[in-house]
Amino acid sequence: MQNKLEPSWKNILDKELCKSYFKKLSKEIGLLYDTEVVYPTRENIFTAFKLCPFEQVKVVILGQDPYHGEGQAQGLSFSVPDGVRIPPSLQNIYQEIKNDLGIERAKSGNLERWANQGVLLLNATLTVTKEKPGSHQGIGWEEFTDAVIETISAQKEHVVFLLWGNFARLKASHIDPSKHLLLEAPHPSPLSARRGFFGCAHFSQTNAYLRKNNLKEILW
Fold it and tell me: Which burial class, exposed, middle or buried, applies to 11 when counting CB atoms under 10 A from its CB (0-12, 13-18, 19+)?
């Protein structure tokens, strides 16, 4: 499985990929793909890394696990392929972008355009069994993605981490706030968006921070 990881990430995470838990995880994930319907497809497990190499990371948006419905997951948190109905949480993200920046809501839920600008769209768990949300939690993915976050924090500067919801906020302990910007809010889900996600202004704050540190803003 590690052979599918984008070269810059594979190089910087080399020691992590050699650990026993990751070897066990790789074997278990392989068996799951052989016996169940798992999302995203094997070739898309590490799409977030492929589209956003390590040296390009400017923003990290953390999700929980991939969409579990057919045709939705593509290896990017909150994103769905072109032509797929935009999920409610992403609709709310688009609404906040409109409220915050005055940008009209995108017609597609495909967020590859963000990834190509340096936004790492990372799920804490990178795979899921069809129609079983959370089914691949606790088998090793979280340890791997914690290491990803810690590596970004340690080896880069001036990265914006957008932590939406209690699950994402737990990851704050892996980030050095003296080097990076942490922005926290309730999850954009319809169940919680009105409790503080709407009005958080994270997108304008992100661009202001990037601009302050002489980094190119994100075209949301």
Answer: exposed
Instruction: Determine whether 19 is exposed, middle or buried from the number of CB atoms within 10 Å of its CB (0-12, 13-18, 19+).
Output: middle
pTM: 0.96
Catalytic residues: 65
Angle between helix axes 202-212 and 88-101 (nearest 10 degrees) is: 60
Query: Measuring CA to CA, which residue among 209, 198, 71, 55 is closest to residue 120?
Result: 55
Tens of pLDDT, residues 160-198: 999 999 989 999 999 999 999 999 999 999 999 999 999
Strand ranges, E, within 93-211? 119-123, 128-129, 160-164, 181-185
Q: Give tens-digit pLDDT for 53-84.
A: 999 999 999 999 999 999 999 999 999 999 99
